[in-house]
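Bench log, entry 3. Co-assembly request; chain sequences pasted below exactly as received.
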Amino acid sequence: MISSNTIKLINSLRIKKYRDKNRLFIIEGDKLVKEFLELNAGVNLVAGETEWLSQLPDYLLERAEQVIEVSSAELKKISSLQTPNKALAIVHMRSNKLKHESLKESLSIVLDYIQDPGNLGTIIRLAAWFGIKNIVCSLNSVDLYNPKVVQSTMGALLHVDIYYTDLDKLLPVAAEMGLPVFATTLDGDSIYKSSATGKGLILFGNESAGLPAGLLRYAGRKITIPSFGNSGFGLDSLNIASTVAVVLSEFKRSG
Amino acid sequence: MISSNTIKLINSLRIKKYRDKNRLFIIEGDKLVKEFLELNAGVNLVAGETEWLSQLPDYLLERAEQVIEVSSAELKKISSLQTPNKALAIVHMRSNKLKHESLKESLSIVLDYIQDPGNLGTIIRLAAWFGIKNIVCSLNSVDLYNPKVVQSTMGALLHVDIYYTDLDKLLPVAAEMGLPVFATTLDGDSIYKSSATGKGLILFGNESAGLPAGLLRYAGRKITIPSFGNSGFGLDSLNIASTVAVVLSEFKRSG
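Structure output for the full assembly:
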């Protein structure tokens, strides 16, 4: 049985303002909730269906500050999934304070004004796969704790540190630190001929607008995925997540 | 003014059964409708807002079999977009009959049981970018003319030939023709060490299930994108569109 206050809290956490105020966010589904418990990643409350809870080992259950048994009708009521999947949890946000030092020895992704939650989720999965530790997002990027982002990362957000900061302040500091800064654009050098390195920042811009001139001026090098197809209508760009996939692969194979 | 019969037809075309019966599908938005007219790609009917129509050159308008002026309220009524964008068109399907010969001299993508419309759309955009001429889908894959697929290709579907066929019949024929068949799996050779070629078939499987054994047995070589990250929860696979992005990039840079 779930209290009306808890229902109210869960509903409020769909909205960024209340997530930030409470420093809490929602995860859903058997696999994701188990992963957060397994990694002891700050689970505040688990609402699970009776049978699902009964199959969960005690050591996992004990990691949640609170456990509530719900019927599938109750789960449906609090879920934002079309097909609710056995469990939902409220989780404490981690405090990610960006230390510039942590960018020094590895390759990091910098995202400006990414708007689509699915894109950010896919980029986080790609970062985890390619061993990228840090993603830095501009302040106007979609919220990491947006339910659609969280669900589409499939748990990868537990393996990547994600920061939000003013890129106009970060990039000059990076330049001063001597970090290579690459910008992905449509008119740069071919990534297949670039001197990919194992450290530095790779900048990716907004889904339609790309990177603004204000940020481009900090880039030591502009890089581009060359097209092997015809030019023409509908062929002017790749999806941002596809771009990240190809660029990370290329840096990692050579870096 | 749009007739109630036209409204009925447009609504019915949201459903595959009626698309197939009428051999028609829907495209939406300023850019996409213009592209189809520009390439003279079988536009049956254009429903456009007055001002949008008035800015369209005559030679483009004449390529549509029928042009209807609509108010933005009317467009909203027939659109399936959250924010309708100036125009919608009904388009004739192309008849794509797969000729095995056409697979012979180039690299083709073979998709088994792809379910998500956004994934298929992104894969079509990737194919166009990397100069892949043919995509062959299993019969149980999501429909190319699903509105979400069409919209997410951003026009790239005009540059790639897409076929639906029984893969259990196609793959033995490909083997007989001596075409190299690559299967993307989680336990194959690293794509960075594979002998990528400029021709052959690359098989990609379903979003969660991957490729079934029945199809894998036709593959001469299994290939994998190695992970550079930690193993663990949420790190067991890449999104299918990300996989296609990395594999195509790797084949094209080396092929």
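The CA atoms of residues 163 and 221 of chain B lie 23 Å apart. Chain B has a mean pLDDT of 93.
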